[in-house]
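Is iron/sulfur cluster placement plausible here? Inputs below.
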Amino acid sequence: MGHPEAAEKFIANDERMHWHDKALWFVREKRDLAAHGIPEWEELRRVAKQIKTHVMSKLDVYLEEFEENAKEKGIHVHWAKDAKEHNEIVLKLLLNRGAKKLVKSKSMLTEECHLNPYLEENGIDVVDTDLGERIVQLREEAPSHIVLPAIHLKKEDVGTTFEHFLKTEKGNSDPTYLTRSARVHLRKKFLNADASLTGVNFGIAETGGIVVCTNEGNADLGASLAKLHIASMGIEKIIPKIKDLAVFTRLLSRSATGQPITSYTSHFHAPVEGGEMHIIIVDNGRSKILGSQDFKQSLNCIRCGACLNTCPIYRRSGGHSYGYTIPGPIGSTLGPSKDLSANKTLPFACTLCASCSNVCPIKIDLHHQLYKYRQHVVNAGLLATKKHTILKVAAWVMKHPSLLDFGGKIARKIVPIMPRSILYSSANIWGKKRELPKFPKNSFKELYKQHKEGKK
Amino acid sequence: MKIGLFIPCYMNELYPEASMATLKILENLGLDVEYPTEQTCCGQPMANTGCAHEADELARRFLKIFKDYDYVVAPSGSCVAMVRNNYAQFLDGEEGFEHLKTHTYEIVEFLHDVIKPKSMNAKFPYKVGIHNSCHGHREIGMASMSERNLPEFSKVKSMLSLVEGIEFVTLKRKDECCGFGGTFCVSEDAMSAAMGLDRVNDHVNAGAQIVTGVDMSCLMHMQGVIDREKLPIKTMHIAEILAGDL
Ligand code: SF4
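Reply from A.M.:
I modeled the complex. Tokens:
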């Protein structure tokens, strides 16, 4: 199923669609308040883009610097060229230490690598500890948003899920009650875990340490209690210096939720006492994107989710409608970079309104990328034949003005007298939910000619 | 100053009044305007659907027809955005392109930036909601965007403010997309219509009698929704208000 069909399904439940739209618009408005609250906002965006662009131009150098400094701090560094290698490294690290129970904090990279099912198949008990992630994990669903993984669910949905899995009171969907229940449930998991896995928001080349931003403190708890901490990091997460960090933390949480800073901004710069810390640096298609002039800016993304919240289509179709790990505008360019054919409808799930590019804290040219990807879809022969033919014919007509004039004249004569049953047959997709414009007697060109005659 | 008038292909066929209003505005200001009759389409529908080859041919055609004018003016933010921001892929380095790119204007923008009239000699005693069509709004910068932290302005509102008796309503979402989106309106028709209805309702709830804007395509889409749902509101191209036709 492509995006149009999935979106149509989501829209069919009008009440829920509008609820989803409003929930995310609320987040967008909170973001606006925060972004408009600091006068240097646009300057921060400009600097952030500069830093990222610079890093991407010397990524190899910075990655090596990062590795060297991390090793000096007693952190083990691993390199994974793809998802398979990443997952195998994680499993090996766990098995080597006899670890059976893993607690995870939020990491879109491990979602991208489908780590959970792989580990579960190999006998590991994996628990996502971010509340939203835990909810979707229990429901065996994918996150529908990169910052708010369970935003597609209402509190009643969470209530029934917890009733089933955590044996909470029947019919109780009070958010405080549910959160407390999840806390009790997760506390046990934290205490019994053999190992923890976190994502990485920023890897600092200068120090060899990583920074993880969360609102729940779950990354800290996991990484501090268990003796084995594994951090999965995409190659693009590097920033040069610790002093660059503030630019990004100021932008990240304001863009994501409208907070001035995330509740926890945790720096991991060494293993816990008597423990081990491992960082897995993952490529998984990123270096291919780095090599493409049109799309390399997509690597600058800090996963704040603002482009999802602002996207009028994301808000009305939900994250699952994209069928790719990362939904919304950024997912609609990353998806095709991963697999063009499987994600061919995503660049078209967009009106090119450009709100995303302007909300993005790193000024990524998101809508231009989607515009460009459409050409790749056409060049790869993946555009629906009917659509392609119509546009080819239209372009041909447009090169023959007299033909266009003739066609227009006929249409203006015939359409007004056509019976509604024919005019609004199933072939008229426009007319399913909209009336056609009223056809006028004359074209502008005809009126213009009369006007000129009259003037003479 | 010789002005070449570009009328988007579908406007020529379907919206002769709004097109004539554009011509009238320019003529009333005493400007020398010409409509080259061999013009058709700027190629935007093809380009936005990824059909670069077809768009390329139409871009070349457009350049040939319009390159000798001092200015090209069009009643469409999105066609102007096409010329200004997307033609480079096809025409960079071609003779006359640099001039065309920097001298193609949307009509309201042209009035605001180039002609700067002090009055418009038009009356419009109605409550009006401004639809900030995305391409005019974000691609060519007709007004400040809600996403950015920059000083507020609106060329659309400035020009409309010269019209006597006009009143503006305040929308809940001042620059959300209406969902037209070119071929998007049929390839994602359910989404497109849902977005259109939400946008129209914002104007209705704000008490607007008329929705106006710089792109007829967005207005056509919203009017389609209005007519189907029988909503108590109408759309009208901004040129018709500024021309003082009523
Ligand atoms: S593309 Fe920009 S707005 Fe979207 S998630 Fe990434 S950083 Fe945030």
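Short version: The mean pLDDT of chain B is 97.
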